[in-house]
Design goal:
heterotrimer; A alpha+beta (about 725); B alpha+beta (about 150); C mainly alpha (about 450); B: about 150 residues; alpha+beta; DNA polymerase, domain 1; 5 strands; C: mainly alpha; 3 domains; two-stranded antiparallel sheet; about 5% strand; binds FE2/S2 (inorganic) cluster
Amino acid sequence: MQRDSASLDVTRRKLLQAAGAGSVLLAFHLPLRAAPAAGEAKPTFAPNAFIRIDESNKVTLVMPQVEMGQGIYTSVAMILAEELDADIAQVALEHAPPSDTLYGNPTFGIQVTGNSNSVRAFWTPLRNAGASARAMLVQAAAQQWKVDPASCSAAKSAVTHAATGRVLAYGALVRDASKLTPPATPQLKDPANFTVIGQPLKRFDTPDKVNGKVVYGIDVMLPGMKFATVALCPVFGGKVGHVDDSAAKQIPGVQKIVVLDDMVAVTGDHMWAAKKGLDALDITWNEGPNGNVSSAEIWADLRAASQKDGVVAKAEGDVAKFLGQGDRLDEAYELPFLAHATMEPLNCTVQLTKDSCEIWTGTQIMSRVQGTVAQLTGLPLDKVTVHNHLIGGGFGRRLEPDMVLTAVRVAQQLDGAPVKVVWTREQDIQHDVYRPVYRDTISASLANGKIQAWKYRVTGSAVIARWLPPAFQKGIDIDAIDGAADIAYDIPNLQIEYVRAEPPAVPTGFWRGVGPNNNVFATECFIDELAKKAGKDPVAFRRDMLGKTPRLKAALDLAAEKSGWGQALPARAGRGVSIQTAFGSFIATVVEAEVDEHGEVRLRRVTAAVDTGIAVNPDTVIAQIQGGLIFGLTAALYGEITIDKGRVQQSNFHDYRMLRIDEAPQIDVHLIKSGEAPGGIGEAGVTASSASLRNALYAATGVPLRRLPIDRAALAGKKNA
Amino acid sequence: MATLKINGESKVFEATEDTPLLWVLRDVLGLTGTKFGCGIAQCGACTVHVDGKPVRSCLLPVGGIGDRAITTIEGIGATPAGASVQKAWLDLEVIQCGYCQSGQIMAAAALLAATPHPDDADIDAAMAGNICRCGTYVRIRDAIKRAAAARAA
Amino acid sequence: MSPLRRFVLVAVAILVVLVSAVAIWFATTPGPLAFAGGKKVALDAFTGAEPTGVPNDLLQASVEKRGEYLTRAADCLVCHTAPGGKQYAGGFAFKLPFGTLYSTNITPDKETGIGAYSDADFLNAMHRGVRRDGALLYPAMPFTSYTYVTDEDALAIKAYLFSLPPVKATPPANTLVFPFNQRWAMGVWSSFFNEGTRFEPVADKSPEWNRGAYLAEALAHCGECHTPRNLAFALDNRKKFAGALSAGWYAYNITSDKGTGVGDWRDDELFAYLATGHAAGRGTASGPMGEAVDHSLSKLAESDVRAMVTYLRSVPAESSRDLPPRVAVAAPASHKEGGGSGNLRGKRIFAGACASCHDWSGVSPITELATLTGARAVNDPGASNVVQVVLTGMQRPPGLVSMPSFGSIYSDAEIADLANYVTSRFGSKGSTLSEKDVAKLRKETAQ
Ligand code: FES
Ligand code: FES
């Protein structure tokens, strides 16, 4: 009866690591090559790619991950500074240049910021980097003083010999330390002795964000720069037919009209001229084969595909047998296409000459950008320079290089002058790489008030297959099923399946919260429906099945307590709970919401209990959960991209609705202290939001919504859910 | 040639009268602190002050401004309300990606200048036009209250 | 006589009397210029400057050029172009209570357009509402107005249309229900309601007035929207220009009534509104009027627009009982004061989506064009135009004014609340729309 579950246990973590293994992981076995020092001829101690110390005692930390609001620059700096014993108040931060070898994300094998794994993936490599450098500095000091290194200590960027009271700043040790061999296995600190990690440190990137000084990709200004904006064919995959530019040419400030096979761009003295010029073009598009693609058709296809048997990603016990026994329930849950709508519209600045290309942008994939530009232009890799910037919102959109390629293609039509290509919000929304539509079907049987058997099938895009082909193995998109395979509940018989179904024409990609968004939504909605069938309270029902996941149980208990679970609420108000282990963080969330007679929802309060292991910067963890919840609630309440006649029907914030401050609930985040290795947090709040909201609405109205965004007419009782 | 009074300085530039102030600020004058988010007055990222009132610069034609004083995020720190907002923003670590925050700070500074002790309804009325995709709303509300309290103290 | 027979006879008698009364009432419906009194004369007999044709500077132009001007004045484009479709190729939907009508292709395509029309065919359509194949047109085609257009002008329009590239396009089939799908019945209708005569100037009125009359009545067909209709769906000139709801929009009272019409507008305000779609403190044209301005009125010679103003001025005051007698002044700057404060959801939507442009006071900090204060729409307790603008936005020529459409993100209930808030805050009498009212308005304008 017992199946060989081990061989079938395909989880994101394992597979991504398998895919990225080999060359890249080795890069993290110190010593690393030195970080490229920006034009410094002075003696510098650069023991690895993350740390540079010069004689003036300036400690420069190089950021392998990009900052898009998640506070990673501060967290990375804290980890490095902790083990390096650098003075955190004095460090300088630097964006890493593109290099998979030096800065590849250990999980993916390439230089990518995503999957909420910056801290998780870099935790050990960064600690090693810091500790190794510290050991060399200590050794250099000990040699000078001719004492035992063990009798020296480091703090605030200086080494002290307590017995003699001698102190040497790191800067003074640069020359000597450079000559030393890094230790094979640097001694890491006992977390109990952390002085930086775990402190609520003020973020390094925010002071320049309050006064307008920060330079995002969209803010880059270069001498002689032109400004451009683009129009892609409104129908996916369509081409430019004919362009009449007579009116556009009359517009003051318009410089050049660039017509390529699938897009049109106008350059001008400023964005307004470019935009007016573009608006004035009379463009006839050849729509190509996708002119009839519609949401209705896509949904029909997806629903049909979800009837098929999928590839089994995980199997334990005997599902077929036990599904046939006891109380059985079958439901399906559906999630719509979503746009990212990062606050900073897509943009990229390019200066392309015969033998070089410089890129200024904000991207989550530094090295891939460099590589694709090299490919497009035919330039050698080292002639493509990528200047990365702070990012005004990534959410997965900047895991794609299309905005860079678009800009380079425009630049190819110009004479070597720098050009900044900025997408209008309309282009940004209508030419996104969308969060795929998903349909998750679940069947379960109950025995004695507990789940006996559980069959879960995910149907949807395999983003991984396109984005990281080596990780797409055995026909399974590890991202799409990860949250289902990693189920926290004690279920003796279970089977997880995946059906790959790609929507026609619509490009799909990662969206903040990725696979766990739909897995947690479907699982946690279904659990509430099972609880109802079992006649149990949703919290109690869950609690009884968390034997193997005590951290989650503790989070659930805390969230229930802090949210006032079980206390009376007004009519048509309800509390909903959801729990998750996504991204290695254990989170329980309770949403309290009310519904009026029109089905309009008011969010009253959200309570989250979070065990993310060691919280490097606890305030950042709280901020990420708060923000992620809002991001996820926005989508759950309003988010849906629809397709008609091959084109996206939404275009800007007037038809792609955003939650606003006056709709935002009170949010209380309770951190659970833990000594475990850190979990991911940047996306966890998003994943935590939708099922807890839906379950609150279920409690408030009895209407079991099974699709997002929430259907207000169904909540009002005007139609079936 | 046209002239505008921006952050206390006279700025001379070339642009047609219909050009929205946003693009003159960003692309012509290089004052890139003011952000482009939607271009249709729905997100608030482009908020500046015109004679102390918050205005969406993405739709405001430069031809209609005349000699009214413009303040942008680069200059708001020089006003008492602006400085207190900036400080509260850092104290409470409001900011995430930060892209919306120029507009948030400008809107909040205008609110505090006009309403020194805003209640929740005042905050809703003044800030609901500013979208934050990172979801910093909870902290924005707290920071406005903190800035108000600091100014009263 | 059995009681039953007697009853039937009496009933028939009553019916006959009623029908004749209605017929007489219809048959005596006044013409569009009846209000002016005075003596109508044949065009040739009119002594002042020619009221028909094109403005002076176009007199020597080619017939196509003259036709282009007149085609604009007659505003053929808007109704004969489907949204996103080729110009003049038809397919624009008219949503009527009894089904949907689609406009025809008037490009010179021989099969699907009017390419095969002779001059006589064309005049028949313009003047009598009769198609080349003899079928009768529905009065969505304003032939009861175009009937006043001179032959010469009508043929100039034809010449212009024939100079355009032919487009092969067949509009969707009409979906009228019985009995409205019976085209022959339009003959009876026309016999009552189509005067079938060409424009006759009024001798004792100025040439300017007569020019204005010709433009407003024959070409621009203002009455088609602004004059209420009778039971038979014909213009009721007894209440000429007193305002009417049509296709989901309220075409407001443009009589000289001081409170509810345009009686207290200055000439230059009327002129500005017609020529640009906006007059300071009077609001901005949107919907069908916005289109009329953009595609027709704004393209006319200044002298012609002034003539229309002169003519409008003479239309007798007729007050609209459904409109408040005066428009409100600016709302307070603070969101806490002013009307509608109890309507929290309406207020919340306004705060998020609207206040940036329209301000809590209603006086836009961005552009006068977005100022709500003084606009009739926000002073209309029916709030239909507020709802329509919220639903569909305002897409006027680029750089002029544009407002995004919010119809897809807000529910009918939310839009009702918003409209009620806006009219209470910025108008002198707030609306009390329900979710259902908005649903109905939404249906009427959906293309
Ligand atoms: S850019 Fe002006 S409000 Fe969005
Ligand atoms: S902080 Fe990122 S959009 Fe507001």
